[in-house]
Amino acid sequence: MDITGVAGVIIWTEPERHEAMAHFYRDVVGLEPRSDREGFINFEWGNFRLTVARHTGVSGVTRDPLRTMVNLAVDDIRPVHERLTAAGVVFSRPPEQEPWGGWIATFNDPDGNTVQLMQLPVVGIQ
After folding, report:
1. In angstroms, how far is CA 22 from the centroid of its own chain?
2. Whole-model pTM?
3. Are 101 and 55 in contact (CB under 8 A)?
4. Which alpha helices (DSSP H) does 5-119 contain, by range?
5. With contact defined as beta carbons under 8 Å apart, do 77 and 116 qualify?
6. Which strand (E) or helix (H) includes residue 79?
7. What is the pLDDT of residue 2?
8. pLDDT of residue 65
9. Rg (CA), the chain
10. Bridge partner list, 36
11. Contact call for residues 42 and 51 (beta carbons, < 8 A)
12. Residues of the chain with pLDDT under 50
């Protein structure tokens, strides 16, 4: 098979909103930038990159916030949820366990994109 995985995700935003989006992911969510320059910021985990970049073809907030979700992996969802709530993030769904065993908490970024904290289940522990 030629495709070996997903290299990354880009969240496009209009130029005037880029700084608010960069601030949110970098300073509020607390992601450590791999690269941070005018109009472009990205974060990296292994071979995967999440990028927020400006695009002149994008305007305003998303019209369909459920079309795409960014799932941010966490080891322990509760303290991350508490930290983000204290930082002013409003969750539309507090941490809840899914039928498949993992935990999910949902919020929106400043452009209205859906973001979830995702704690995967521990395999092999009963």
Report:
1. 11
2. 0.88
3. no
4. 18-23, 77-86
5. no
6. helix 77-86
7. 82
8. 83
9. 15
10. 41
11. yes
12. 126
